[in-house]
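Severity: low
Component: inverse-folding endpoint
Summary: output formatting inconsistent between runs
Steps to reproduce: submit the following structure tokens with default settings.
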């Protein structure tokens, strides 16, 4: 099969798979950001009991491979009566994994805000929660933008692991095309190029957000 015919056959398949990959990454990032923010708040505010639970969760999901987490959620949980479709299992695994990393990024940014900001809030009569919401969190979010963006870029590449549970994202679609065309080199190059373009696109978004949220000089 010549290159032109291969591209004509592969382009629609890779496009659909790319959209699915992008959807996985964005859904997991939005859900993971909400989860990470909640965990960070619990740990920064030192909520009794919950902070130790959240610390254990973060340690577990940062200390084990994402591939193992995917297997546990999709293949392991049905043995105890909890079963998910491949799509739901994929999003759930990605969300729980990235949520642990995002929580540390946000917590680190919050902790990095000087104690003087907390004291200033207290001097204005604000509670610790109010100071966090109105004073510390907005500054911490600005500081955390590069780390959050890097997590999203990493998440796009991590979606390739979801192919192991038969979700036809970019990597599995590429493998299926190779099994019918027997052209691994150009197809793997095409998949790598797509991942690269997606990463470059989000790098541009990261730069725009950094400029938009930059501290005034």
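Observed output (run 2 of 3):
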């Amino acid at each position: 099969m010549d290159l032109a015919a291969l591209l004509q056959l592969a382009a629609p398949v890779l496009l659909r798979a790319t959209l699915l990959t992008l959807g996985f990454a964005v859904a997991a990032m939005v859900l993971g950001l909400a989860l990470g923010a909640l965990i960070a708040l619990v740990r920064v505010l030192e909520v009794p009991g919950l902070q130790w639970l959240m610390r254990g969760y973060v340690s577990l999901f940062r200390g084990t491979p994402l591939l193992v987490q995917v297997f546990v959620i999709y293949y392991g949980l049905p043995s105890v009566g909890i079963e998910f479709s491949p799509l739901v299992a994929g999003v759930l695994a990605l969300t729980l994994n990235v949520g642990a990393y995002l929580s540390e990024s946000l917590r680190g940014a919050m902790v990095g805000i000087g104690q003087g900001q907390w004291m200033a809030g207290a001097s204005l009569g604000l509670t610790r929660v109010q100071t966090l919401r109105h004073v510390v969190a907005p500054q911490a979010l600005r500081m955390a933008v590069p780390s959050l963006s890097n997590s999203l870029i990493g998440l796009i590449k991590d979606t390739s692991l979801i192919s192991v549970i038969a979700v036809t994202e970019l990597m599995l679609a590429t493998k299926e095309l190779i099994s019918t065309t027997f052209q691994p080199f150009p197809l793997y190059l095409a998949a790598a190029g797509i991942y690269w373009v997606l990463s470059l696109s989000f790098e541009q978004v990261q730069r725009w957000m950094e400029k938009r949220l930059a501290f005034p000089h």
